[in-house]
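Notes on consecutive records. When two proteins share a document, each keeps its own sequence and its own token line. Never mix them. Below: protein one.
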Amino acid sequence: MNWTLHFLGTGAAHAAELGSSAAVIERDGRPLLLIDCGPDTLDRYMAAYDAPPEALYITHVHMDHVGGMERLFARLWFDDAWRGRTRLFVHAALVPWLQGRVADYPGVLAEGGVLRPGPGRKRRLYRRYAADSRGAGAVRAGR
């Protein structure tokens, strides 16, 4: 069994030519987990593996790490073969922040539905995660 870490990019906003910071954990050459999804990550991932990621882990919500999630969502949502197949892993404390960056930010995701709980569940979702995120000041409980 051979484990590798394949860097798709090592740049940031000021070094876009190096690609968005993202890496893939591989086992025997097969991608298992994409780490972060910046603005150009999906293109780089598809060029390397010719399929969308099966699993995505978000480390934090700076745009150079989550700015490509809208493109990933659109790719998955409109491809029946891939809809619902990519698992998202994110620390509970980041859920409200990710919601704000990707789903609630004006005009970012016109399609909606990413990390957006159903009617009447938003209050419970925030209350559930608020205890974990208070240290970061993300969301007040009951909001």
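Protein two starts on the next line and is unrelated to protein one.
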Amino acid sequence: MKKFLILFLLLVPLRAFGQTTSVTLTVVDSSGGAWNNGVYVATLTPPPGQPPSQFFLNGVLMTSNQLTVTGNLNAAGVATFNLSSNTSITPSNSSWGFQVCFNQPSNPCYFSSPTTITGGSQAVNLTPPPAQGAPEVIKRIAAPIFSATDTLNDAVSTEQFYASSMRIPANTIAANVVLQFFIGLEWTTSAAATNGTLRIYIGPTNGSATGAKAIYTSTQSSPATSLTLNSGMVFTIQGTQAPGASTTMWFSNSGGTGASFPIGRSTTSATQGSLATNADLFVFASITWAAGGSGANSLSVRQLIAGPGPLF
């Protein structure tokens, strides 16, 4: 009798352990875009050809919370949750169906084919077509910046970095995500104007070109003398992949007032890679004067704004 009791106690936890499977669901569409922050619904379905009926898990009637499991995907389009193993469910030959919906106002959804869930853990990878309504626009990642003092002059001829910058939080840049920025500039020249080159960077360290990508580099400008000129430019960053340690993105810009101002010449759309989007990134600017001067020529960053696209 004691041996029977010991054997029974040993079998109970083993039987309970086999009831559930840890499922890792990953949703990346056929264009490589992760369905970041989407919604999933896992529903237990009866064997093919049989009408819906009651389900039993190891002889115990299953509850509604066991029959349907819902939740949210993370920024990489991934979720981990528990489902009852089909091998422990009667009637036999049941399966699980997955519905995933993209995080957009139109909420396009995708339905998987029946999947058998069994074992201690299982990966389920879904590849829906690209979601309609993408790309998604991030409306605000940081408060607008205005400065009356962020000015760099031509007394220094090496590259100088502006204090104004914006932090892009980790995992913000992903497939189908668009960020737009506006930078407002003011150029003051003396009777002996100095040429300068403006650069806008995105990188892992604020104010450092090391490991950063120059998403805009102006042609060296030849400004008119004795002027104060204000202008600005919108530039766009578009994610193409799920957040990771080395990812690719698109960028482009528009704006400018002419050859006498550093944003009078704009670059075409291009890609940048090898940036860690699963960590914080920073957008910042620099100026490189052609030669050291008296300090009477200066370029100021007055505004830096991140907002919904299009900004104008």
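For the record: DSSP finds two helices and 22 strands in the chain.
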